[in-house]
Each structure stands twice: as structure tokens, then as C-alpha cells.
Amino acid sequence: MNHEAQNYKQSGKVLVSRRLLVGLGKLLVFGLTLYYLRQAILEASSHSTFSFATFLKIWAQNGWALCLAAALLPVNWGVEASKWQFLSRKFEKITFLEAYRAVLVGLTLGFVTPNRMGDYAGRILTLHRKDRADAIGAILLGRLCQLFATVLMGSAALAYFVYKYYVPLASPVGISLGLAFLLVNGWALAFLFSFQWAIGLLERVPFLHRWLHYFAVIGTYSSGELRQTLFISGARYLVFVGQFIALLWAFGVHLSPEEYVWGVAGTFLIKSVVPSINALADIGMRELSAMHFFGLMGQDPLLVLGASLTLWTLNIALPSALGLIFVLPLKLSTPR
């Protein structure tokens, strides 16, 4: 009896310790999120193009463009939620609202982790099944499809800038670059549609065996399901582009439609392929690439900077803060 009582006492201590660690983890995420938001606000406020007076001036002149960009915010993450709801059907059926909540939780945790890796943990922790870590493959597939849309449009944007400002198209270098862009996109698309073959190759590597089951789910998606995932990713990419163009117009960056599209596509490509340490580093890369591409087209870098910082605030900062509402009550224990 004493032995049972001792075991019960020890299990109680373990439970208390686990709850304490979980609570401390949530507080850490909460504190880091608020810290990064504060640093971002201080960084943005140091630029005259992001001052409150400038914002009021822009609102008076082009308030409709700001409203359009803000109205596309829930659409942006709603499309991502729709994609997650579709991908998660392989292992658990969730509602659209549950998917939206998972996306916001992932966004908040990704806000404070390198290269937004917390997005994986955030979505996994909102699932109810016991072996919910198997969802890693589905999350990776969603990110790969989104990356493919970015690379496809970004490659066309790079070709536009290279051929217009640096290298003639009808030259050996120009032709080589064109073939390279085609090969990169063709390889990426072939990889997505033959992941089961890639899994077979990885199975031959002994030290990777313990990780394979996390990614094997990607090979279970049919060609039709992959096409639908790519379609949803493309739709979300268009929402991103629409938001950025609306904000550029609001800040006084006036270009032709194709210049808007290629400038935004080039910016998104550079931001996506360069790893980021945290949310603050993520800001700098997008702003530098945006000012470079639009600077080539003769636009004021400060106006581009203001539009890009506003885009980051709308799409990342505000939803990350909202996601804290769902992070704090989150249960980190594995469902039975």
C-alpha cells in the first residue's frame, strides 16, 4: 500500500512538473511574441514613411487601397486554412474553423522560431488524434506547394529583370538562364508528383528510417489532390500579390500592371528562399529585396519600404498577436 502511495505521489509530481513546463513554455511564446511585435513597431516607427502622420495622409488620399489590403487579410489566411483542411483529411477530418485556428496557432509559434518552424508544432498541437506527429508530412507538402507557386512566379520575375536590365535574351548567357529557370521549375514540379519514389530512395538510407514515417503521407496524395493543393496555393499567392499591389498604390508607387506583378513576385521569391532567424530578420529581407526590385524601376525606396512594412504588419504581426488567444489554452499533452 505504501508502495502504491509512493508511486501515486511520484506520478503527481511528474504531472505538476509537466504542467509547470507547459505553462512556462506558453508564457515564453507569449513574451517573445510581444517582444518581437514591440521591436518591429519601434523599427517601423523610426522610418518617416511609416509614421502616424504619413498614415493619415495616405488614408485621406488612398484609403480605399488600404481597406482593400486589410479586407484581403482574412481571405489570405482563410485560403491557407482551406488548404490545411484539405490536406489534413488524410489523417483527421477537421472543420474550416478548426483549420483556421490551427493556422493562427502555427503562425504565432512560427513568429518566434527560426524559418517559421513553429508552424509545424502549432498545427500538430491542435489535432486530436494520438499519432498527430504524422501530420508533419502534410504540413511540409502544403509549404512545398506554396513555395512552388512562389518559385514559378519568382523565376519569371527574375527573367524579366535580368533580360530588361542586365543580359539580352538573344545571347548565350540569356538562353542559358532561361533554360535554367525552366529546369528548376520542371524539377520542382516533378519532385512533387513523384514523392513516393523519393521515399523509396530514402528508405535505403539506414539512419533516415526513424524519420520516414513522418513524411510518407506525402506519397499517399494522388495527382488530383496535388493539383488541387497547387491550385489553392496559387490562389493564396494571388491574394498576397493583390495585397502588396494595393499597398504600393496607397503609398504612391504607380507602375504598369506587369511591373507591379514582376516586382512583387521577385520580392516574394528572395524572401522565401533565404532562411530567416526570426520575425525581425524576416522583415529586413523582404524590405531589402522590395527596395532593390522596385528601385530598378525608378521608384522611391522609402515608399516601397512603407508599403512592405505595412504588408508585414497586416499579414504577420496582427494575426500572430491574434493567435496568442488560441496558444494560451492549448493542451500540449498527447491525446489518448
Top keywords for this entry?
12 helices; 0% strand; mainly alpha; 336 residues
How is this structure best described in words?
The chain has helices spanning 2-45, 52-87, 96-111, 118-125, 136-165, 172-192, 195-202, 209-215, 223-250, 257-273, 279-296, 301-327. The protein has 336 residues and is mainly alpha-helical. The chain has one domain (14-327). The radius of gyration is 23 Å and the shape is globular. The model is unreliable at 7-16 (pLDDT under 50). It comes from Rufibacter sediminis. The chain crosses the membrane at residues 20-37, 58-79, 138-163, 175-202, 237-255, 261-281, 302-328. Its main location: membrane. It is found in: Cell membrane.
Mean pLDDT: 79
DSSP helix count?
A: 12
Total beta strand runs: 0
Q: SS-based structural class?
A: mainly alpha
| Shape field | globular
Pfam families: LPG_synthase_TM (PF03706)
Transmembrane segments: 20-37, 58-79, 138-163, 175-202, 237-255, 261-281, 302-328
Protein name: Flippase-like domain-containing protein
Subcellular location: Cell membrane
Task: Give a summary of the structure in a few sentences.
It is globular and about 55 Å long. Residues 7-16 have low confidence and may be disordered. The chain has one domain.
Please describe the topology of this protein.
Blueprint: H1 2-45, H2 52-87, H3 96-111, H4 118-125, H5 136-165, H6 172-192, H7 195-202, H8 209-215, H9 223-250, H10 257-273, H11 279-296, H12 301-327
Helix pairs in contact: 1-12, 2-3, 2-9, 3-4, 3-12, 5-6, 5-9, 5-10, 9-12, 10-11, 11-12
Organism: Rufibacter sediminis
Keywords: Cell membrane, Membrane, Transmembrane, Transmembrane helix
Main location: membrane
